[in-house]
Amino acid sequence: MLLIFLIFISIAQCAQELSDIEKIEQAYDCDPKCWFREAEVNSSTITQWPVNCTEVCGIMNFNAGSDLPVFELQTYFKNLRVLKGVLQFSYTKYASIEFLLSLEEIHCDAVTLGVSFSFNSNLEVLNFNNLTNITCDFYAYNNTILDGTEFCDRYADLALMFVYNNFKNCKGCVSDQLHSTELDKFRGCTAIVNTMFFMFFNVYTTQPPIDLSPLSDIQNISGCLNFYSTDLHDFSFFEKLENIKSNKYANVDINIFESYNLTRFRMPALKTIETTRDNFIINVEKVHDDFCFTPSEMLFFLKNEVIFSKIEAKICQNVTEEDGEDDCIFDGMSKLDNNCSDVLGKITIGSGDEAYVEKLRNVKNIYGGIRIENTNLTNLEFLGSLEYVASLNDSAVPFQISSNKLLQNASLPNLKRVFSTSRYQIGFQENGNDFLNSTACLFLMNQLFLTNVVFDGNECEAIDRTNQNNGANWIFRLNFFILLLWVSL
């Protein structure tokens, strides 16, 4: 039985692995007449190329067996404008790719390695001429006489470029797993190409401590950041790092794992984070118990719609932000300062606090949560400026509105996201009788990023289904009554 079970599991796992052709079929809209399904491009397979198609799906694999001259390939590919699939050159004899001058778009995000040029000893130039769109990472490496600088300068904004170990590469130093004894090779580097792995990276447990200053000039990283089993306290050695442009190489874009001495994030110059996946993903797991994000760091992640696969962190308290202004600390509505923009703590508005709610008129960000309970409020207009609410290290619903019997309107026009690790981020419970309806619930949920709303214990979709069923039942009863009335006549 065990053997049969293992065979079944093996078959099931194999069934989950799709070929590139299957991935292309599932991902893209392809004309059945415009496919190229051959394993490689050579004199035997080229007759299967759909010459008249401007959009082609399939795999264009050029390798050591590709024996067609350039002028002949130009004839076959003259109409090609869009490729949906794979473009690979490996161990070919071609000096250029001028037969692809007409190519404008490469849709390749559905496959693992969409565009790559490797070990082409005669390749001198990547002379694409009309490219306007590449939907996956671009790789060109170990091409001994390739000058990739012009290509990089011209198409740098189209895709994440990994052009290295050629005669001339994209601007930037190539990185992989970092060893503390080899950091000096990065001195003076302003751009990094490829993932930076700080793995088993110990700085302070060695004597003397490792000098991290060679990394201080880095401004741009094209790749993921992985901090695995380090003794780092923070990342302030990236003092000039402004831009991280990540890709799908790893499961997350910034991974912080088993760094038990890490207490702060601290990338003071960071301005932009991008990824070729739908959203930038950060994992923070197994760090120091005191690890925290400052309010400005958390706001940066919220504005960039970062997804946290796991976040073992708090919001830093009693910190002075870069703008020199302290955040307001909540200690009761009556004591709260007027004109606060950012508030730290769990705001509680209860019976008798209605007179103070105008103090929240200018509040944009709340780090902790907000609870409105047992008030006579009829609306939430005083929260008209609120954009973000974030609650870390707390399983409670961060935005709670409960037992406000006169509440008729919960419009929050500028709210963009309520973040927490709990299942729900906004909860309404036992408020005004006319307040609960699926339209208001769905509208609120749809305007927010990754924010789940619950009304009186029901999710928006459940409310919507209940209302639809009630409406259908009412129509059925009405139709049945009309039928009975017609029969009686």
Automatic annotation (TrEMBL):
Taxonomy, superkingdom: Eukaryota
InterPro entries in the record: Rcpt_L-dom, Rcpt_L-dom_sf, SPS2_domain
Alphabetic keyword roster: Receptor, Signal
Hydrolase as UniProt keyword: no
Stretch forming the signal peptide: 1-17
Domain Receptor L-domain per the UniProt entry, residue ranges: 52-143, 189-300, 339-432
PANTHER family, per database record: RECEPTOR L-DOMAIN DOMAIN-CONTAINING PROTEIN, RECEPTOR PROTEIN-TYROSINE KINASE
Protein name: Receptor L-domain domain-containing protein
Species: Caenorhabditis elegans
Phylogenetic classification of the source organism: Eukaryota, Metazoa, Ecdysozoa, Nematoda, Chromadorea
